[in-house]
Design brief:
Elements lengths: L12 E3 L6 E3 L12 E3 L4 E3 L14 E3 L6 E3 L12 E3 L4 E3 L14 E3 L6 E2 L3 H5 L7 E3 L4 E4 L13 E3 L4 E5 L12 E3 L4 E4 L13 E3 L4 E4 L13 E3 L4 E5 L9 H4 L7 E3 L14 H21 L1
Parallel strand pairs: 1-3, 2-4, 3-5, 5-7, 6-8, 7-9, 9-11, 10-12, 11-13, 12-14, 13-15, 14-16, 15-17, 16-18, 17-19, 18-20, 20-21
Length: about 300
């Protein structure tokens, strides 16, 4: 990447995306005080994002996705009060999610997916994302620990994707606070416990993927109330019991997304084991007792 580009001090928009640029993001980028949009995506850039980027007070968009950038995401991003959209996906960023992001009140979109981020998801950062209008994507990193209850503060986001991490514990019922949510993906983690019944309050929800976790218990019957729902994947968990008979569930497409839950049952036409009729176990036991008694009686005779 040419270093002398930082001499263009009146530049407001820099779009060098989808070229074959190599090298590093120059430290001299701090001189571009009027820069509002920075798009370096789809190149072969290496190294880290310089801390000096925090001096670009007019910056509203950063897109450095699909490069080979590494190192920590600079905490200095928290100085960018005008920052609305940040795309860092498909790189090799490591370390933790920077706490400084909680000082970016105008964020509308955040995508840190497909990196090597570690540590817990900071609750205070989640709480600061109340103005997200589009999506939060933290998928396919190495994040661990619980999903913070502050996720409920993301009340305007259309989509949240935190799949492909190492999150554990229960899915907090307060996720129902994300009232505008249309797409929720928490698959490929280590969540345990029940599917929260509160999800049924997300009336705009169109798709939900909770597959490949360790969720247990029954599928909440209240999920049939989600009128906008057209995709649900609960495969490869430890779910048990009968599938709901109304809503999206009783069709072959959905039941194919319930595989890997040997404790689930339903009609044979949905390729699920038949549900044991209530009381059939007692009836079987009674039959065995009667047959045993009859055998003893016959022996005595």
């Amino acid at each position: 990447m040419p270093q002398d580009i930082t001499n263009l001090t009146n530049l407001a928009y820099m779009d060098l995306s989808h070229n074959l640029l190599r090298g590093y993001i120059p430290y001299g980028i701090k001189r571009l005080h009027k820069l509002e949009r920075l798009d370096l995506s789809g190149n072969r850039l290496e190294g880290s994002i310089p801390n000096e980027i925090g001096q670009l007070q007019s910056l509203g968009l950063i897109n450095v996705s699909h490069n080979n950038l590494s190192g920590s995401i600079p905490d200095s991003l928290g100085r960018l009060q005008q920052l609305r959209r940040i795309f860092l996906h498909h790189n090799r960023f490591s370390g933790e999610i920077p706490a400084g992001l909680r000082r970016c009140p105008n964020l509308e979109l955040l995508d840190f997916s497909q990196n090597e981020l570690r540590g817990n998801i900071p609750g205070d950062v989640m709480a600061s994302l109340q103005n997200i209008q589009f999506y939060v994507n933290l998928s396919w990193n190495f994040l661990h620990g619980p999903l913070p209850g502050e996720i409920s503060k993301i009340i305007s986001a259309q989509a949240i994707d935190i799949s492909g991490n190492e999150l554990e514990g229960a899915i907090p019922g307060v996720v129902a606070g994300c009232l505008a949510l249309e797409h929720l993906n928490l698959s490929h983690n280590a969540f345990t416990g029940l599917i929260p019944d509160a999800i049924s309050k997300l009336q705009n929800l169109e798709s939900v993927d909770l597959s490949s976790n360790f969720l247990s218990g029954t599928i909440p019957m209240s999920l049939k109330q989600l009128k906008a729902l057209h995709y649900i994947n609960l495969a490869f968990n430890n779910l048990t019991g009968v599938i709901p008979e109304q809503g999206l569930f009783p069709n072959k497409t959905v039941t194919a997304l319930l595989v890997g839950n040997p404790g689930l049952c339903g009609p044979k036409k949905y390729l699920l084991p038949a549900c044991q009729k209530q009381g059939s176990g007692k009836h079987t036991l009674l039959t065995k007792v009667i047959m045993s008694a009859a055998g003893v009686f016959a022996f005595v005779l």
